[in-house]
Design brief:
This protein is of the alpha+beta class. The protein contains twelve helices and 22 strands. Helix 6 packs antiparallel against helix 9.
């Protein structure tokens, strides 16, 4: 083990191999405390992976292949995760200091960002909200020499996954399994972050090469330079997320337009959208956002930036652009100010009255952003026996503005006396047994699904890749659930607790199992599973 304060490494000159045309440069690895054959560890990122030579100046490619080395991947991943955080810091976006949440410890656990390079043979990368870490695959088994592409080497991919982590730290409820448009907003946020940071609309140009195509700097896995509308995309979160990322890229283009009202330089336009992007994440007043909630949050984020003197352009003109683009993309017909429909009270005591006599709010979750702060409180229900059941999706949000403090209550679930059936016929031990059976079935289904995906005929290669990726992820989710249930090792999240889920008046056991969450009806034994992972 060697200790360094400053060291250099070979990294791509742009975001990946194709966009860099294979060119690398030596760059400083800032905040690096130490490195060894396992990884690189510093104040902003902690990257590990398969053992490689304990060096920093690495060979880029494996002998005789255009596939990167373990050593290069880890240095590249560390450099990008550290650099993007430092860049955001310079814009006043200080995520690691933005949230004070003693109940969940989100900020304490999220940083330095933990990332695992080349940790799976899958053609995939993901962020786990429960473990708060990033995992990157190799598209084929390295041990058999079948690895085609190390996703950790692509800065578009690592920036995208970091975007999921950042949004989850800022607002952990909107991407949950009960999230309305939250999944699509998450994917749009992650793509937009990578696009604005690199000033490049194409996502992961290396992907096509890994799939056997020719290098093309103008074509990637996805593009944010699109004119998509909600009615023209599916419900799949990545596909639907293209509308949200495309909306943000269009705002950037309008900021750049030379004959327009703003006429900003490229970097200035991207930086402004980044500030709006992050500020908007604090502005949701519900945990199941609609596309209208997204637009409202964008406008509120702009207003906060303007109030803080950090916008730099005419706020009203920019909001008009936002509303026009949102209308075109079928995201919104008008800006609806939260609270205008009476869903706003003076304090949390008033909010508690609306939630019902058995409702209790959790500890304060204070969120600081450019131009203000919010205080988000989780809703709980107190049972006859005094147990606390988390109301899934139930939140109250206080926001401080020039008009004072308002508490938004549209995210609460009003619960009247006698509404909740507190019958418990299923013990926690029995619930674990039922979850184990379900996870075993899911693993078998995932195995079968992978075989089916590889044997079917598809219209396009993209459809084939998506089917394989989905099957691989389903397998990882079920595999992790079985591991957690067998060992009852829940170090990545809170212990099992009681919950009240949307659409039900029964108590449920909520058990987090790594990449998913089980809900078992305590009265009937019905089992519900929700994925808890971002790809």
């Amino acid at each position: 083990m060697v200790n360094f304060i400053q060291q250099v490494a070979r990294v791509w000159v742009r975001e990946n191999m194709v966009s860099s045309r294979g060119e690398v440069a030596e760059r400083g690895l800032e905040d690096l405390d130490r490195y060894d054959e396992v990884g690189l560890f510093g104040g902003r990122a902690a990257v590990d992976g398969p053992k490689a030579e304990a060096g920093i100046i690495c060979e880029v490619f494996q002998p005789g292949k255009k596939v990167t080395t373990n050593c290069f991947d880890k240095a590249q991943l560390y450099h990008n995760l550290t650099s993007i955080q430092k860049y955001l810091d310079g814009l006043g976006i200080k995520i690691y200091r933005s949230v004070d949440d003693p109940s969940s410890g989100k900020t304490m656990n999220a940083f330095p960002v933990r990332a695992h390079a080349n940790a799976t043979s899958d053609l995939n990368a993901w962020y786990s909200p429960q473990d708060m870490d990033l995992t990157f695959g190799t598209s084929g088994a390295m041990s058999k020499g079948k690895d085609k592409w190390h996703l950790a080497s692509d800065n578009d991919v690592s920036s995208h996954e970091f975007g999921h982590l950042a949004l989850d730290v800022i607002n952990p409820v909107i991407g949950s399994g009960w999230s309305g448009e939250g999944g699509a907003i998450h994917e749009g946020f992650a793509d937009a972050l990578a696009a604005m940071y690199f000033n490049d609309a194409e996502m992961s140009e290396d992907f096509l090469v890994a799939m056997g195509g020719e290098p093309n700097e103008g074509a990637g896995l996805r593009t944010v330079d699109n004119n998509l509308k909600l009615s023209k995309v599916s419900t799949e979160s990545h596909d639907r997320g293209r509308v949200y990322s495309g909306f943000l890229w269009s705002i950037r283009k309008e900021l750049l337009r030379q004959d327009g009202p703003f006429n900003l330089a490229e970097k200035d336009a991207s930086d402004m959208v980044l500030k709006i992007l992050f500020n908007h994440a604090y502005m949701y007043t519900v945990s199941t956002p609609s596309s209208q909630d997204f637009v409202n949050a964008i406008v509120a984020g702009i207003d906060a930036l303007a109030a803080a003197g950090r916008l730099g352009v005419d706020a009203q003109a920019l909001k008009e652009v936002v509303l026009t683009e949102a209308g075109y993309r079928e995201l919104s017909k008008a800006v609806v100010v939260p609270g205008d429909n009476g869903e706003c009270v003076e304090n949390f005591d008033k909010a508690k009255e609306l939630a019902g006599p058995r409702s209790v709010f959790g500890s304060a979750r204070v969120q600081k952003y450019i131009g203000g702060a919010t205080d988000v409180r989780q809703q709980y229900y107190r049972t006859d026996k005094g147990y606390m059941a988390k109301v899934i999706g139930g939140i109250a949000v206080a926001r401080t503005s020039v008009d004072g403090v308002k508490v938004y209550t549209s995210g609460l679930r009003p619960i009247t006396g006698g509404q909740i059936d507190e019958t418990v016929n299923i013990s926690l031990a029995k619930a674990y047994e039922m979850m184990g059976v379900d996870a075993g079935k899911k693993l078998q289904q995932a195995n079968s699904g992978y075989f089916t995906a590889t044997q079917m005929t598809y219209k396009t290669k993209a459809e084939y890749i998506q089917a394989v990726k989905t099957a691989q992820m389903d397998y990882r989710i079920a595999e992790r659930a079985i591991q957690r249930l067998q060992t009852r090792s829940f170090t990545g999240g809170p212990r099992p607790e009681l919950a009240i889920i949307p659409g039900s008046n029964n108590l449920h056991y909520e058990v987090k199992v790594g990449l998913g969450i089980y809900y078992v009806n305590a009265a009937t034994g019905d089992v519900i599973f929700k994925k808890d992972v971002f790809i």
